[in-house]
Amino acid sequence: MTSRVLRMAALAAALGACSSQPSAPVPPLVLTPDVVRLAAQATFGPTVAVVQDIEQRGAAAWIDAQLQTPPSDLGSYPVVADNVNAVCPVGSANTCYRDNFTPFLTETAFFRNAVSGPDQLRQRVAFALSQILVVSGAEVRPNYAIAEYEKLLLRDAFVPFRQLLEDVTLSPAMGRYLNMVNNDKPNAARGTEPNENFAREVMQLFSIGLVKLQPDGSVVTDSSGVPLPTYDQNSVIGLAHVLTGWTYPLQTGATQKTHNPAYYLGSMVAVQSNHDPAAKVILGGTQVPAGQTAEADLALALDTIANHPNVGPFIGKQLIQALVTANPSAAYVARVSAVWADDGHGARGNLGAVVRAILLDAEARGDVKTDPSYGRVKDPVLLLTGPARALGVTTDGVFLASTAAALEQPPYLSPTVFNFYPPDYSPDSTLVSPASALLDSASVFARANLLLRLLYSPPGPDRTVSGATGTQVGLGDLAPYGNDSGALVTSIDALLYHGTLSADARQAILAAVNGQGAGPSWIRAATYVVLTSPQYQVER
Amino acid sequence: MRISRRDVLSGLSVIGLSAGLLGGRRSARASTDDYRALVCVFLYGGNDGNNMVVPVDGRYDDYAAARRPQADGGLALTPDQLLPLAPVSGAAQYGFHPSMPELQQLWNDGALAVLFNVGTLVAPTSKADDAAGRVPRPESLMSHQDQQNQWQTSLADRPSRTGWGGRLADELPPASLPPLVSVAGNALFALGASSHPLAVPAAGGPAFGLSGFDSSAGSRAIRTAMDALRGLDLDNALVQSVAGETAAAFAASGALAPVLAGTGSTTDALFAAQSSVLGNQLLQVARIIEARSVLGASRQIFFVAIGGFDTHNNQIDRQSPLLAQVSGALAAFYSATVQLGVASQVTTFTLSDFGRTLAPASGGGSDHAWGNHHLVLGGAVQGRQTYGTFPTLALAGPDDFTAQGRWIPTTSTDQYAATLARWFGVAPGDLSSVLPNVGRFATEDLGFLG
């Protein structure tokens, strides 16, 4: 143990000494459990303000208002060159690389907005989409490129899926990440073939998946029980040829080339001379006629993919898993697939309508869920933003961004295109629980120790970050209960457990609280115990 | 070995764990005379084996013709770059990638073997069988996630929630610490029906224990509440699984934390130049092996991993530092086992998603393929030899099921795993419970472990 280790008792004594002004007792929080549950599913963590807003408007009206709320500002970042020679000049500040060639600054904005932005549902859905249609700063280095991609997902969180798919496909960051940019037609002289990377993943990960699905998400098999694949290698090769002939957008003032230099604002542009004009066969045997432009080929391919019957259950189920429960019933998936197929106005893939259907479904709503397989293990990001929002944290995002990295979930910086965890990860042999892939015996301690830091010694401004303000814990909605342990635990139960705390669990937390000096240390001790509990780590 | 039981005990008191862990079970610890460990090194993304080991005899021309010159956006390494692998007698037939001098040395020392064209297989197959559909292909061939899973489960014809490392551990008698240790988080490889891996941080990583606790009443009250909450509200299976993971971490922390912090380690210096992702993981493995008798371990299965091998573009520049890291870290680890006197009791081996196309892709990369070459390292390895059949390096040739150079494997993951499992001590009659499909293949012992 190092000298930097925190001493709870010492802190508790210090903090206890400067508190405890006698005041009139404040009644404990009383919140509608189902509304708190909705806030946990649709935001980065319930606050009393959000819960009361939903209580007043009603769930459907609150969601509709959220669908109309514009994206929070993610900031503007300098355009930097991105080639093998692009480095920070000799003599530049040692923050040059961090600020320009890692997504650090964008991540601080991500966390500032997640903690306090009004567009909570949009951000939450964009975060889910960022884990399905993955671009990572591990490969796409310029910070402004990652920011641009995050803005795309925020903007498109509720648009028709076909639109999202096109915007993502032509995003220069995605083009760079999965090698669709400067992907040229076959070159016999050089012996090169079109790059298959994006062609494969756009089907496998971003739209339809590997095996045919029923609308309820169950797998279609042949007579001997073998799953039927959605596509074969020839479809990948065909699509790779379809997707040839795109390069980076043209930077203002530059001259158009067949391979433009890396530039990440706007959409990729077609270069017909690099596009393969031959006929191709893609998904489902669809014929792409010879002689079409790169744009026409792309439109046909994206229509074919977006209209595939798998998209609704494949993407819809992952959104359910990201927002509500990791093991949805087949009927729940089928209801969401039906809205995917037709939003009620004849439109397919209306993401806003799909999100609304997911959140208002009977399987999502209710005060208490007793099904033993119900719920989802929280992402590390939510284990940070939830406490930050409930405890009135004000932050510049720096501590949360670095903490997310330590907890293996830095947004927009996943290790591979397969996200931080696979969507079918199972911690044992029975249940699916994607986020459980990040929970192991090592991360148990990492999580507890970082929450301790947040609660007991949040860091002040990092002087290497421009405009840094640090992180402060105001204790927010729980602040009034520093002298009333009973009301404190009741309020924590209402806000963080939506009223599900058993009598024994309540007793255990009370005992921990009463073992400290009264005041803020009561609140900190209670929340540390709660936030590290298995119960809190599962949203249900 | 410098680490003593006393260090571990003092570690326990620092962490504040109750002495329960040190109960009777510990006194019955197994003899370490027959200690054995398997170390799985997963190369995530699909390592391009075609450039890891290259023929230097007459077949080099086939290689160069298909891979194309680097100046044209191709991938061919030049003859003078390759590090020759001289066999025990005769001329070298193969050479290593230039970034692997340490592994070339271990080959020369007889501690390293190369296994050719291994892959996920439902059953033995050939180009004709494959083309006629007589033998089904593995499910979702060439998909990263699925092929990573199948390499880790060695079940190419069905989904599985257990990996072969986990099933191997299921065969072991109960031990005070889980026999499976991952230094790379949760991995399907290490999940058994009843076995669950302990995940530990890499060397230099965060503490394997709770910060901020001391012997004060306030600390004790918080710890008591945490322990109590972990046993409550277990009606929900997800809460139960989080509680189980948390309990396992707390139970292991006392004994392991000082080991993982490097207390008493005599091999740290060997890793001084290997502070890489893989180096820091393998150093942690070396520390645990050094502490094996205090930890009561007689059979251990380790999992370490490094990513970045999905080289769809710019492969020449990207693969070199990765292979350099593998070479340096594996060599440091092997030196550690020599120093600890357990070189012949520890076998290290590579797995990876799949091989890559021999033909280059647009952008100077290669695409997903099937069969691949792998490395096995250790004192028990019959090294300085190759095993299996090297494919014919011809596009659309006899080993290619496409036109881009994707090798149909001639050795299965089952055979690879079975050879390791037999050495680890699984009786031949029990092999099928670890590797249910191994009986479909001609031999379950490839011979690289004698």
Assigned CATH architecture of chain B: 3-Layer(aba) Sandwich
Radius of gyration of chain A: 25 Å
- Number of strand elements of chain B: 12
The computed structural class of chain B is alpha/beta
Average pLDDT taken over every residue of chain A: 93
Question: Could you tell me the mean pLDDT of chain B?
Answer: 91
Give the number of helices of chain B. Answer: 15
Q: What percentage of the residues of chain B does DSSP assign to strands (E)?
A: 5-15%
How many individual helices of chain A?
A: 23
Low-confidence regions of chain A? 1-20
CATH classification, class level of chain B: Alpha Beta
* Helix percent band of chain B: 25-40%
Radius of gyration based on Cα positions of chain B: 23 Å
Fraction of residues in β-strands of chain A: under 5%
DSSP summary, beta strand count of chain A: 8
Shape of chain B: globular
Major sheet details of chain A: 2 strands, antiparallel
Largest interface: A-B, 95 and 87 residues
In short:
The complex is a heterodimer of chains A (540) and B (450). Chain A is mainly alpha-helical.
List the helices and strands and how they pair.
The complex is a heterodimer of chains A (540) and B (450).
Chain A (H helix, E strand, L loop, with lengths): L7 H10 L15 H10 L5 H10 L1 H10 L27 H6 L2 H13 L3 H11 L12 H13 L5 H9 L2 H6 L19 H8 L28 H10 L3 E2 L21 E2 L9 E2 L5 E2 L5 H13 L4 H13 L6 H12 L9 H10 L15 E2 L2 H11 L2 E3 L2 H9 L34 H16 L14 E3 L11 H12 L6 H12 L5 H12 L2 H4 E2 L1
Antiparallel strand pairs in A: 1-2, 3-4, 5-8, 6-7
Chain B lengths: L4 H11 L8 H4 L8 E8 L5 H4 E3 L4 H8 L15 E3 L8 E3 L4 H8 L3 E8 L7 H5 L12 H10 L10 H7 L9 E3 L15 E2 L17 H13 L7 H24 L16 H14 L1 H4 L3 E8 L8 H25 L6 E7 L19 E6 L7 E3 L23 E2 H12 L6 H4 L16
Parallel strand pairs in B: 1-8, 1-9, 5-11, 5-12, 6-7, 6-8
Antiparallel strand pairs in B: 2-4, 3-4, 5-10, 9-10
Helix pairs in contact in B: 1-10, 5-13, 11-13
